[in-house]
Each structure stands twice: as structure tokens, then as C-alpha cells.
Predict the structure.
Amino acid sequence: MLAALRLVVAESELVAIVNTGDDLELHGLSISPDLDTITYTLAGAVNPATGWGLVGETFSALDGFSRYGMATWFALGDRDLATHLFRTARLREGATLSQVTAEIATAWALQTRLLPMSDSPVRTRVRLSSGEEIDFQEYFVKLHHDVAVSGVRFDGAEQAAPAPGVLEALEEAEVIVVAPSNPIVSIAPILAVPGIKEALVARRDRVVAVSGIIGGHALKGPADRLLVELGSEPSALGVARRLESVVGAFVIDEVDAALKEPIAELGLRTAVCDTIMRDESVSAKLARTVLSIGAGNGDA
Amino acid sequence: MLAALRLVVAESELVAIVNTGDDLELHGLSISPDLDTITYTLAGAVNPATGWGLVGETFSALDGFSRYGMATWFALGDRDLATHLFRTARLREGATLSQVTAEIATAWALQTRLLPMSDSPVRTRVRLSSGEEIDFQEYFVKLHHDVAVSGVRFDGAEQAAPAPGVLEALEEAEVIVVAPSNPIVSIAPILAVPGIKEALVARRDRVVAVSGIIGGHALKGPADRLLVELGSEPSALGVARRLESVVGAFVIDEVDAALKEPIAELGLRTAVCDTIMRDESVSAKLARTVLSIGAGNGDA
């Protein structure tokens, strides 16, 4: 979504508030997958085949991990390791995650400001139907999200504060875009940090979400399955219902045009357009639609 | 030297007591270059062109380090990083360096026992003629040992104890071999750990050293230069004088045959043979000579 937005807005005018509930500690390293994926993507360095990690990456260290019986289910690339080593060393020196994130963004010459949702650790914990509770990355990567889930909680969220700049950005933004991400495990952890949800509610008229569910399915990831497991309809309407308290506008895909009315009945301005960002033309059009309806313009 | 000895002795009968004064912390990693070089060498995995690091290694992470302004003068390979990450994580979990060293040796299927000289940190510090004091690896790698040295000390040595098994190995060994390593920065730190020097003195008759200085020069490294700078003759005799209190026998190269007499006058049994281990035949012959004279046999 950020890549789409910067087709129509100067990169330096964008601020990204990023989920850190996915963060993990592995092999002694502090890993922030969502921050890194956004950094690499905006830098044009992401592996386009996977959507994560670096293009042309090598995985020699991972071979070494096997030798020592270290976990290899989280595929750390060699150049990517430098990012984690840098972050880990800086955090140990006393830097905040915000500071390190800014330093990494600078190292990649990003114009867009990246803000972790909080400098305090928040960890998304997934309760399985078996009763076991596991870390998000275990659920997502190790188990390929191929298990039944009975609940999700955000460990540490209650004690966390928004990172410096987060509330200010939400107060000052012309439009606040909730990306077409998983509402349960990617959007909800951000909203769980005290103050952020309230900041969105306060500016609800300028908040616009894009549905990550298209035709009843997530483009990738387990959002559709999780919605069903946690009692929501696996549709753009189900997503809208989860977000209605914080968003004033909602953008859905053309295949979901029939859901425009039910979503409008929730009190949301709605726009229908192609939301599958397969090329720059579609992406730019979506970005313009999002910004237009988010800025308070009527249905489209 | 270990590789030579195992040509004539079962690997499982060898115990290596290894210098850890060269250890360093870099990028938050606990790095033990001497232990690793020995591990990789005995595993047949060392890069033969450099004598350190892994053969066929990649250096992608190092590219990443540059991006973040991290030091790159110590070339950490990608597979090698796995070793450092494993060691660092295990040490943080509370394992001792001995334990981690054994685990790494097992991972590489080594038959030879590797013992760090101590589980406590000892750091070789090099005082330059400028008055500045720096870490060993800064001297050795970063500055390519191309600076004048006025002194060397082993920070932490006085408080250190020999690692478990070190004194027992020295008590039980049929022969104790002091490798043809740098007497000032590789042998001396081991002897600086309280108890180790005394253990050698107690078994002096079974201790044999091989001169690392041949024809007045070190085969590699700064041993010759350091000997001069710190007041010794840069010769096998100079090395023998530095070690005479702990060794009963001394092996020198054929080019240094003229030094046999002066060394014998120090009270050392002496053997002269080819000490440049260019192939297995020469290496095996040297190993047999070392073990024979070390075991108490007369001059050769």
C-alpha cells in the first residue's frame, strides 16, 4: 500500500506506523519482520518472489545454523542478518527501536518515515484450538498458519506507549490509511497500543481502510481463516465491521461491489475499485481513490 | 601442528589447549578466532588460501555491515556467522566457553578435544609505541600488525582460572607440545592463566616446543618483529630463551642447525628437522620428532 501511495504522494510526505507485534528474538537477535519488509520494499530491495527478505539474498548462515541444531524455520538471509545484528547491537547499546528504525531507514536512503507502533515490546500471541499459546512467527512461519486458532492477544500492549511521533503523525495527517493487512494480527496489535485507537477515533473522518479480503479470500496469509475462527464473516463486510469504530471510509474491490450497501449502512463512506495492486497503473488508481475518500470526499 | 600430530597419533588422543586472548566482541557477537580456526582446520573445512574462515565461504552479511556503518575490518563470513551466533546465544544462556567449544566441536564431528585456556575472558592488549593500547585483533587484523609495539598484557588473566580439564590434560599428557605459534601473543597468554605455567614447569621434561621462527623470520604473522620490539633476539634461540622455563625440549628447523648448540646450552634437549609443514610427509616426520624428543628421548 505504501508503494502505491508513493506513486501519487511525495515519499517524504508519507509516515508509516508499523506493527511490531510480529517481532521476535531468535538466535539472540532482535528481529522486526514488518519493519524490515517495509524498509526493503521501499528501498526496492525486497525479494519480489517472496515479498520478504532481500532480492539476490544468500542463505549460507542458515546452513551453519543447521549444523549447530539452531532453528532454521525462520529463514534469515545473510545480508538480512546484518540488519538484525545492527538492530540488536544498537538496542543493547540503549537505542530505542524508533531510533534504530530511523537509522536503518537512513541506511537504505528512504524518504518515508517509518515508526514502530511502540518502542516497548508487544508480542502477538496466538492461542491454538489445542489450548497451546505460541508466538506469532511460530504460528505464521513455522506452522504455515495451518492450525486452528481460538484467540489472539498482544502481550505487553497494555503497558506500551505509542512510539515518539506516532500520535503526532496521526493528529497531523491529511489522511490516515489502514492498509489492506490482516485485521486480526496486523492491524489489531497497532490499535492495542493505548492511545493509538483513540487517536484514530478522534480523526475517524480522515481514516480510510482498504479491505484485505477480496471475494471472501485473503490475497495471502490467513486473514480469511482467522476471521471465521474468531467469529467474523470472512468478507470485506467482516473486515469493515471489525474496523468501523476507527475508520470513516472503506475501500473494497470490484468483485465485492455487492457489499457496498451493507458497508455503507455501517456509516462508512465506501469506494469500489480494483484493489489488487498488480501493476503501477492499478496501484496509483487505488492510491488516488483511497486518498480521495479518506480526505472526506463522498462515495466512489 | 595439530594437523601434523594427528597424522601419527589417534585424533581422539589429542587435547588442544587454545589461546582465547585473541577473542573479541564485535557486532554483539562473542568471537573466538583461535578456537574456530582450529575447529575448522581439524574439520577439513578451513579456507586453505587464508588459513582462517571456511572454504567456499560467502561474505554477504559483510556487505550489509557496510551499509549500516558497522566495522568490516574483521571479515566475518556468512557460515562463520552461524558459529558466532551459536556461541553468543549459548554463552548468554549461561553455558561456559568450554561447554560451547565442546558443542561446536561435536557439531563438526571432531575427535580431538578442544579446551579454551580459560572460561573467563582474557584479552590480549597491545600497547603501541605511540602509547595507545588496543585490542589484539585491532592490532593484528585492522592494523595488519604494521605498527611498532612497546608492550603486551593479558587483561583478566590474573583473575582467570584454567578451564575444566586443562590442568588434568597437562598432568596426564604423555607429551605436551607447545605449537610453533607466536611466543608473545599466542603462547604467552596461555601461560598467563594462573596454574598453567606451573603445570608445565612441573612436567617440564615432557614439554617440547617447536620454534615458530625459522631463519630469523616468522612463517607468517609478526612474531619476528615483536621479538625485536620487546627485547628478544628474532631467532629460534630468542624463542627458546622465552620458553626455557617451561619446556624441556626444543625443535628447530634445519636452516637453524647452528643454533642447536646455544639452545642445548640453555639445558634443553634439541632436535633439528624440517619444520615447514608443506606436505603430510614433512608434517608426519616433524610430529614424530616432536613426540620422540618430547617423551624424553635424546637429541635428534
Remarks:
- The interface with chain B takes residues 27-29, 57-58, 60-65, 67-70, 77-83, 85-86, 88-89, 92, 103-104, 107-108 of chain A (CB under 8 Å).
- Chain A has a mean pLDDT of 96.
- The CA atoms of residues 25 and 31 of chain A lie 6 Å apart.
- The two ends of chain A are 19 Å apart (CA to CA).
